[in-house]
């Protein structure tokens, strides 16, 4: 199996992010995107042109941008989290972090996904690490109640407890579907509130081996991607404001950093 097809090997994915708001007004957009898929057990061995791991480069991955956000190793933090929630016994294999790196030192990552596998390479748990534009973060720990394998297309739910958009309330639930295997990994998230699907989102891309050619292709295609994420968020917010969508003031963040 080639590196581009193995979900447990380092990869760069080129694809798109999709949003469609269904109610109370319709608003839809699709933007190009790129992201990394990094097996955490291999971070110390990565040596890729243009990509620095714990050091400055055109692209850089920093442990302090994830998990406890103190620069300590990520795997022990995640292992402790899984242990506290009784999941360490089933998610005892490779962990693949799907995320965007810093570009020229700048980063805004709306959501990163930690794909936690068992020793046979089967997906068992996903940690969705969500950030908002107020500098706050929250983790949704997602798994089947019976702790069984997460298959492509399975729907898993999480109660919404964290403020992201001022045009949506902190109420209702997210419904996740993961397609983490193969050459085109993707995540779909629907937001439901009041018995109605209000928002559909998806992010996915075609995987390539993580090497210097792939990082150069990213730089050439999307040289300002991380900055563009912030600009696009505010542009879409302006469109919703002009459509007179109800505005919700930001509540206090949840007391716990992780919910399930």
TrEMBL record:
Source domain of life is Bacteria
- InterPro entries in alphabetical order: DUF1365
Pfam families according to UniProt: DUF1365
Q: What is this protein called?
A: DUF1365 domain-containing protein
């Amino acid at each position: 199996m080639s590196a581009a097809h193995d979900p447990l090997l380092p990869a760069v994915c080129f694809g798109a992010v999709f949003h469609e708001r269904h109610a109370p007004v319709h608003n839809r957009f699709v933007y190009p995107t790129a992201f990394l898929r990094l097996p955490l057990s291999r971070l110390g061995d990565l040596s890729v042109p243009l990509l620095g791991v714990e050091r400055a480069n055109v692209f850089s991955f920093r442990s302090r941008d994830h998990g406890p956000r103190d620069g300590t190793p990520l795997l022990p933090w995640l292992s402790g989290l899984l242990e506290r929630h009784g999941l360490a016994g089933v998610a005892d294999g490779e962990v693949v972090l799907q995320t965007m790196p810093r570009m020229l030192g700048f980063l805004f990552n709306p959501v990163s996904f930690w794909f936690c596998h068992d020793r046979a390479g089967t997906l068992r748990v996903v940690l969705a690490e969500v950030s908002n534009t107020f500098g706050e973060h929250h983790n949704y720990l997602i798994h089947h109640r019976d702790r069984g394998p997460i298959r492509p297309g399975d729907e898993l739910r999480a109660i919404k407890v964290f403020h992201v958009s001022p045009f949506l309330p902190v109420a209702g639930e997210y419904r996740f579907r993961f397609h983490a295997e193969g050459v085109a990994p993707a995540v779909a998230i629907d937001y439901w509130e009041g018995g109605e699907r209000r928002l559909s989102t998806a992010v996915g891309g075609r995987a390539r081996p993580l090497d210097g050619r792939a990082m150069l292709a990213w730089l050439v295609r999307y040289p300002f991607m991380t900055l563009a994420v912030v600009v696009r968020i505010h542009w879409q917010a302006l469109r919703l404001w002009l459509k007179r969508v109800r505005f919700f003031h930001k509540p206090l963040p949840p007391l716990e950093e992780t919910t399930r």
